[in-house]
């Protein structure tokens, strides 16, 4: 349960979490197995310039995208309630939970090219926690700063996937993150988590270790028994993750929506058994239409409605990112699939 109070001097809301397990939180602050957020871009087709802070929300209780009544920078909503657990733990100096913040373009620090193109937050204790994977540069803030949305995060569309996992699953997640080679800009790993989570200790120290595999797909099970598949590639697997690996492994033609700069974008690919096409225009309920050039999110869906694969992640379809580490989290959840598949307004084939 989450309770709110208001600081008499500052007028700012403060979260007070009662005893309970760490998890993804919905728009009301209640625990959910997973949620997806699609932040709308500032510039949309045939619409006046928007705030760049509105978003669509989806979780297991909803049949399709729901326009949130909150903004992503509000002191309410799924992101704020979820990450609030991290900020509250930091404030209380808890030694019963561990966390990891990573972003190739972190807040307050310079961008560096030698890390994976990957962004996310992990928070867990021995019982349970969440993995929030997103596409937002300079987010989230350092724990001592409290929740906030970066000013640079308004222009483009962005996605975020949060999944709640039981504690033991974070051993596997840590193994996958080693391949990601993430830029960890803040972390906490109390002694009680060693040596079970030694891989996280390595990540916290910023040490790059030799890896035996260039890529690895691993099944993860959410707290309520739903299967997700994480595709993680290192910088030593030099290829387009969508074309060369994910589409072929899932045995599915994929429609891919990723941010592509014109001089580096990869064209649709039909040279392998499973084809990969580029989404050029997105439509979300409202209706909200926007072009891929204003969408910084990274996701793909099966072209065939029967296969129902959706993957959300880190990497763009452009030539430079073939040399980048990162990954995708995939699911055959029908709610997630239909929500993203219907969002494909127009794509470019071979």
Low-confidence stretches: 1-19
Main beta sheet: strand number and arrangement?
9 strands, mixed
What's the helix count?
A: 5
Distance from N terminus to C terminus (CA atoms, Å) equals 51 Å
Report the mean per-residue pLDDT as an integer: 92
Extended strand count: 21
Q: Helix and strand succession?
A: EEEEEEEHEEEEHEHEEHEEEEEEHE
Helical/strand content category: alpha+beta
* Percent in strands: 25-35%
Give Rg in angstroms. 19 Å
Can you tell me the number of structural domains?
Answer: 2
Measured as a percent range, the helix fraction is: 10-25%
Shape, principal axes of CA atoms: globular
What's the SSE blueprint?
Blueprint: E1 2-6, E2 13-17, E3 24-25, E4 31-32, E5 34-39, E6 54-58, E7 66-71, H1 78-91, E8 98-103, E9 119-124, E10 128-134, E11 158-166, H2 169-180, E12 184-188, H3 198-205, E13 215-221, E14 227-233, H4 241-250, E15 254-257, E16 276-284, E17 288-291, E18 299-302, E19 310-313, E20 326-331, H5 334-341, E21 344-348
Parallel strand pairs: 15-16
Antiparallel strand pairs: 1-2, 3-4, 5-6, 5-11, 6-7, 8-9, 8-12, 9-10, 10-11, 13-14, 14-20, 15-18, 16-17, 16-21, 18-19, 19-20
Helix pairs in contact: 2-3
Pfam families: DNase_II
Keywords: Hydrolase
Protein name: deoxyribonuclease II
